[in-house]
Amino acid sequence: MKPLKFMLYQGFLLICLLFIMGLPAIANENNNNKKKENMVTFETVVVTGTKTEIPLDQSTKSINVIMGEELLEKQQFFLPELIDNQPGVYLKRNGGIGQFSTISIRGAGTQHTMFQYNGMPLRDIADTQSTLQFFIEDMFASSSVDRVEILKGTNSTLHGSQAMGGVINIIPVQNKDGFSGQWRNEFGPNNTYITQGNISYGNNKGYIDFSPSYIKTDGETNGGPHGYYYDSKGFTLGAGYDFTDATSLQFTALASDSDLALGAVMK
User: Fold this and answer.
1) Would you state the CATH architecture of domain 45-262?
2) Which of 241, 176, 240 is nearest to 203 (CA)?
């Protein structure tokens, strides 16, 4: 009888030990369940397809969204390079920084890709087709970009004949909380220098955001006898105020001044 009692005693101790070891796992699972219950998931909202805010999964248009977090994670501030990673979008560059670049969507001509900033069409008044195709190489984003919406396919009815290929809408961050500021610098060969800054303030009623930038490089020779010179400076300015839950006023301004030329001939 003693061996039987001993075995029962061992079995009882083993069951207690297993129960005690399982308590942390049970507690951890309960905590995870509570966290999941308290977790709030925000849907991705787009505006380019209908000019009104709707959830991305309810849009009947073909839209890709690049979030600002991805821009910071990849440290890729040349927007056309980031957009080129999306399906159906093709970027062609004739050289390095500041060289002529084109973007086409689904094989349409570059003149049929409309660019917008916060829903405002961007156009070149010197271009007979009023497109932005000759300024794509100047599209360096600041850290204040919230997302980039890429609407693919014919959208002439809503956005005009320039949107026969698609629309690329750059949307800045609008929900600010207090003061914030950033400053970013890049240095490279051929006297390449890129600097961008951002300062902003906001509360539950409104915001203001200012982002200047300066880009300079002597450029590559690309196998020829001379290099090229590129100098670009500009800024974006945005502000908004919510008068009521249904009424708001927003202001957006952009400025850019770029120079591109062959390098000087040294004798």
Assistant:
1) Beta Complex (2.170)
2) 176
Confidence of residue 2 (pLDDT cuts 50, 70, 90): very low
Distance CA 149, CA 49 (A): 9
Name the residue among 86, 211, 105, 203 with its Cα closest to residue 162: 105
Q: Where are the beta strands (DSSP E) in the chain?
A: 45-46, 54-55, 62-67, 89-93, 101-105, 113-117, 120-122, 145-152, 166-172, 178-188, 192-202, 206-217, 228-242, 248-262
Q: Got the DSSP string for 78-99?
A: BHHHHHTTSTTEEEEESSSTTS
**Cα(185)–Cα(75) distance, integer angstroms:** 12
Report pTM.
0.71
Q: Phi first, then psi: give them for residue 187, nearest 5 degrees.
A: -125, 145
pLDDT of 42 reads: 53
What is the sign of the dihedral through the CA atoms of 155, 238, 142 and 54? negative
CA of residue 151 relative to chain centroid, distance:
14
The alpha-carbon radius of gyration of the chain (Å, integer) is 27
* Angstrom distances, CA of residue 123 to CA of 70, 111, 135: 27, 11, 9
DSSP annotation of 43: P
Give the pLDDT mean for 123-141: 73
In tens, the pLDDT along 225-262 reads: 667 788 889 888 889 898 888 888 888 888 888 888 76
The per-residue pLDDT for 159 is 75
| Cα–Cα distance, 83 to 103 (Å, whole number) | 9
Instruction: Break the chain into its structural domains and give their ranges.
Output: 45-262
